[in-house]
Tudor domain-containing protein
Amino acid sequence: MCRLFLEENEPVIAKYRGAWYEARIVMVERQAICKIYFKTDPRKTEFTVHLNHLLVAESATHQLRLFIRIQQNDPEEIELIGFRDVSTYTVEFPDGITERLTRKHVRPLHTSNRSDNNSTAATDSDEENEQEEEEETTV
């Protein structure tokens, strides 16, 4: 499952004064820009809107459908083409410094305690060790 936003209290790597440091998210101001087109538009003209203008409805078949309300008209169904996180993240570094950063300056910290990462890392290192042993024996 793909996450759209980073969460509070999540460990991250944040850029501060030109270098990347480990930090923790303290607060998130969620905002996003979406590229859409109207399903009724045969030309498929793209529009850019903020996420808070979109309406989400669930159909009888449990599929999510997206709509947008233009002025006072009935909502029109749209297709989502692109999504960009423009949220502001307040992060705290281990030394206590707190900084507000945009999403491009905050990256999720991929911890090594995930089971799927450990298993692939272990198999990769085992394969590398086997290849090194084979090279040593052939020399």
